[in-house]
Model the fold of this input.
Amino acid sequence: MDNVLIDTDVILDSFFNREPFVEFSAEILNLCEQNKLNGFTTPVIIANVYYLLSKAGKHQYIIEKLKQLLQIIDIVKMDKKVVLNALNSEFKDFEDALKNFSAEENMDIKIILTRNLKDFSKSKLAVLTPETYLKGKH
Done:
């Protein structure tokens, strides 16, 4: 079973039913719920999802959606080593560097699922869209 880091855009595609991406993001989360995929996220991703959802929804609703999400995926640690690796990296986007090195520090994660492929071009991990990942599994 694969261990994957699920990026902000994938979660938001599912939560906001963004076409044409919702089909693939929802399938990723369904696989996590069915224990056929081990999904992970970071504290930064959770904070970003909360912030972006708060523009469209009420606090209590968002909290409930995040609690439901965290029943099917886990959170990787972010510590000083992760932050220093991100600061010393060649990533142009610091936030993406934090996500990447959080995943790299969790030795079991080999894949980042995102639609933002270019910002992870410096990653040592496999970086795939949910669609590409799912097509490779079937």
Remarks:
- The first strand starts at residue 3 and ends at 6.
- The two ends are 14 Å apart (CA to CA).
